[in-house]
Design a protein that fits this description.
Number of strands: 13
Strand content: 15-25%
Shape: globular
Largest sheet: 7 strands, parallel
Helix content: 25-40%
Strand order of the largest sheet: 4-3-2-1-5-6-7
Structural class: alpha/beta
Mean pLDDT: 84
Distance between the termini: 21 Å
Oligomer: single chain
Amino acid sequence: MNICVYGASSALLKNIYYEKTEELGRAMGKRGHGLVFGGGATGMMGAAARGVAAENGYILGIAPRFFDQPGVLYEKCTEFIFTENMRERKKLLEEKSDATIVAPGGIGTYEEFFEIFTLKSLKRIDRPIVLYNIDGYYDKMKALLEYTAEEKFMDFSVLDLVVFLDEPTAVLTPQEVEELFKILRQLKKNGKTIIFITHKLNETMSLSDRITVIRKGKVVFNCDTCDTNEKELATQMVGRQVESIVTKAEDPHGPVVLELKNVRLHKRAQETVSIQVHAGEIFGIAGVDGNGQQELEEMIVGNRKTEEGNYFHERKRSPEPVCKRA
């Protein structure tokens, strides 16, 4: 996957912005994702490019010809495309990538974000959009968008089209989380101090030596990890005792009311989907926004055709298995 990264070009920001964006680039390179960006050598653009380059990843820079000045453009791109103007550049940034990450930036970055955000809300594009919320930079933008929905200038459903990422392990697989923890433990052995902010209790217990719980802006609990447990932490986090006992009926399964067999919703999807949903059960589908949940919903209600496979639900059945398109 090629990922477009938007962000500031300023060289005057706090170091945390550059460090986290370079970390992002490294993570992209390690996973085999390419970078598509505005070609700048400085700021967030340069940081992302340096991170991908450190992992020998693919880098495509796109910039107007008038930016071709000494020190302005990143020189180690795998490929570089020069455009005649900024509009052509923005068009190619979208066309050459499959997803968008918006790192902290100024009005230019805002304009780029709101254009793709609007296009996605109008169903003109279909791609994951992530705001990389370094150091809470986009907290106020999130609050503004929520206020916009509260005042009914847009529907609350539009907020689901974009993801604000500030949880360190939010988009990592369990294997990748453990790999991250190995790195953090090694840093600890090397004498480094790590502050790990999370709401995931299992991660807290697995990684930390000491735990602080903050509730409503105040420190309400502080102890060594070995002296507490997940139940006590949950109580401290919410301010009351939390019971997590769940009872289930012995046989909740009724007849099959929805079935997908080897369904592929998009020609770029790497695997097919097969599921069965029974009457009397709650069937959950989890994943980071932009990984096919909306497309699956649209297919089930009849608003999207499949590339491959067939499906059945109690009111509708695909007449014949759909053949993969050439």
